[in-house]
Amino acid sequence: xxxxxxxxxxxxxxxxxxxxxxxxxxxxxxxxxxxxxxxxxxxxxxxxxxxxxxxxxxxxxxxxxxxxxxxxxxxxxxxxxxxxxxxxxxxxxxxxxxxxxxxxxxxxxxxxxxxxxxxxxxxxxxxxxxxxxxxxxxxxxxxxxxxxxxxxxxxxxxxxxxxxxxxxxxxxxxxxxxxxxxxxxxxxxxxxxxxxxxxxxxxxxxxxxxxxxxxxxxxxxxxxxxxxxxxxxxxx
Length: 236
Prior knowledge:
Number of strands: 7
Oligomer: single chain
Helix content: 25-40%
Structural class: alpha/beta
Distance between the termini: 27 Å
């Protein structure tokens, strides 16, 4: 993995981005993909997703932290992503885990924080830059996912709203709309990023393949893995 970004600890603004990951354990990640590609391929794909996202993030100006789940997974995270400051996600559901992560980082003195999901291996760095830029003039920023959820959410310390993480039916198609309804109720100035497609199913994976296959593998570990494993042999 690449080394720590040179911006770590040296930014006037003290911003950071937190990547939410799952511990790499066969049968516990990308289960819908595993049903069609096998557990070994699903695990390999997930590890490639995370590697591709981190490669993009480390090209940017902002320090990266890792938040992992389950919380007893340090022994699996350290050998995989050991170059990055990491800590367990704490909470009963995704909302509580995001809430606690924001609270912890704001208490450490960070002034603006983004949380990013790990199912978007081809998200460009420009979207991250847009998100941080938006927080200079908006209360919050959110990136809608095509399945009705969101892939990114961010706040400044002074604009943080815990309510958006409470009472939401996570992993449903209504997550984004319900979150936006809370923002509207609170009178938040929201910046909405471009919609992006999470990779959870074979249809999602095929869409990623079709978007990227003609550009060659390049620096994409995900595309290289799909070529090597012949995930879509008819399109190789």
